From TrEMBL, chains A, B:
Domain of life: Bacteria
Claim: Iron is one of the keywords in the record: no
Any single Pfam family the record assigns to this protein: GntR
Keywords: DNA-binding, Transcription, Transcription regulation
Identification of the protein by name: DNA-binding transcriptional regulator, FadR family
Domain HTH gntR-type intervals: 22-92
InterPro entries associated with the record: GntR_C (IPR011711), TF_FadR/GntR_C (IPR008920), Tscrpt_reg_HTH_GntR (IPR000524), WH-like_DNA-bd_sf (IPR036388), WH_DNA-bd_sf (IPR036390)
Gene3D superfamilies: GntR ligand-binding domain-like, Winged helix-like DNA-binding domain superfamily/Winged helix DNA-binding domain
One of the record's GO molecular function terms: DNA-binding transcription factor activity
Organism of origin: Actinokineospora terrae
Cell inner membrane listed as a keyword: no
Length: 238, 238
DNA sequence: CTCCAATGGATCGAAGGCGCTCCATTGCTG
DNA sequence: CAGCAATGGAGCGCCTTCGATCCATTGGAG
């Protein structure tokens, strides 16, 4: 009649995980940093007005402003008052991220594999509207043209664009999360020009397959692309 | 220098989504209901002690107890005091779930496709420990033996077991979430014996492929299995 | 029979977060 | 040059949630 609660069924552990990601303030800061680090809001770019942001994040304006004030003091953003004022992203900001442990690395890489290969396949299987096709090509061009400074930001945007192409908000959100975790890992290893060239070629293969509507090829190309990054990370962080 | 915030970049929407799932109390209730509905804690089974649960859920005991009291009044659980007391799951409880809209259906089914096919492939690609192999066979047998009353619970457990077999906590958690959303959809359509037989055959194919270590076959079998459910749902809820 | 350990039950003060309202600044518009 | 609109800045009272502590109940252990 009673369960063996000692080793605790892994299914239970999955369901009885923490309900809230902790402090609302910290979580808000984390989100804003995500947007900056992923390059979704580029350096110099303007964040949405506080009233809109707080509403989107489901957080009071008071809390949002506390988060923004902290980011201001840490030099990530800058606020200007008055009409046509706003909050702006300041620097490319190379913040040191905490080094994750081995289990967390495998967890991140495995979840990433499932989500990104799935997204690539699904994007290829859909009939993409012209605007989406343009966006994909644009992100690909940006990533190819990016020097070492902007590479990871444009790379993140390209991968996010693929997720968006599936028109599945949950999938995009999940992938944005895992991407943030991945960037935390990538921050700990050097960016080698040879890898960059290699990645660009793979990106082109992936996007071509998606635009061609070849789901199998898109999945395979993505899998190969991810394997490269995964091997690199395991090598540096093992 | 400023962003086109009007239609709002979908990537921004993905990042600037709500920080907290709302009320801590409601979220806690939802989690407990998940555990009950997914059959992770079977009818008559005992929940972990309040102190442990509140700690796992990252919620104060006060809040957890409020949630439990609500579930008690709705007849889902029952509490007994004293040593060897505890909180126990009461009935199979057929609660009516709110009907989701069309976009939510596609969102759920698409995310599910990405996660479940990924999980099947990854589980097959791993070298599974004996205990995991046994667990998979056990869940398969339970689902096959289950009558119409217990089918969806055992089915949920089987799919969760596949996710657990990947040894990737994030993936298991994500899949548990999407499964809950799926069950909300399934609750709105009838369970047809013919589908049940068909599903059981597909389950066997999937598990066999996983135990054989045939990743490609596992993915394909899972994709076919999901297509059946998806078509059924689209048919009934379109 | 007594004690004890494990569980649920209850209360209180402190902190976090929210909704609301009003203020301050700025630059375009007429 | 005066007004206005859009933005950031700041304060107040309320509700939720938390952490800690103590109480109540129960059944086995000694």
């Amino acid at each position: 009649m009673s369960l063996p609660n000692d080793p605790l069924d892994p299914a239970l552990a999955a369901l009885f995980r923490p309900v809230r990601a902790g402090n609302a303030l910290e979580e808000t800061m984390e989100r804003m940093l995500q947007a900056i680090r992923l390059g979704v809001v580029p350096p110099g770019g303007q964040l949405p007005p506080e009233r809109e942001l707080s509403s989107r994040l489901g957080v009071s304006r008071v809390t949002l402003r506390e988060a923004l004030r902290a980011l201001q003091e840490s030099g990530h953003v800058e606020s200007r008052r008055g009409r046509y004022g706003g909050t702006f992203v300041r620097v490319p900001s190379s913040d040191p991220l905490p080094a994750p442990d081995r289990d967390a690395i495998e967890d991140t890489l495995t979840l990433r594999y499932a989500l990104e290969t799935g997204a690539a396949e699904l994007a290829a299987a859909r009939s993409l509207p012209p605007a989406t096709r343009r966006h994909l090509r644009g992100c690909l061009a940006d990533a190819s043209a990016a020097g070492i400074d902007h590479y990871r930001r444009t790379d993140s945007r390209l991968h996010l664009a693929i997720a968006e192409a599936t028109a599945t908000p949950s999938l995009t959100a999940a992938l944005a999360d895992v991407r943030t975790r991945l960037n935390a890992l990538l921050a700990a290893i050097p960016l080698i020009p040879a890898n960059l060239t290699h990645s660009n070629a793979q990106h082109k293969t992936i996007i071509d397959a998606i635009l061609d509507g070849d789901a199998t090829a898109a999945r395979a190309a993505m899998a190969e692309h991810l394997a490269g990054t995964a091997a690199l990370l395991r090598g540096f962080l093992a």
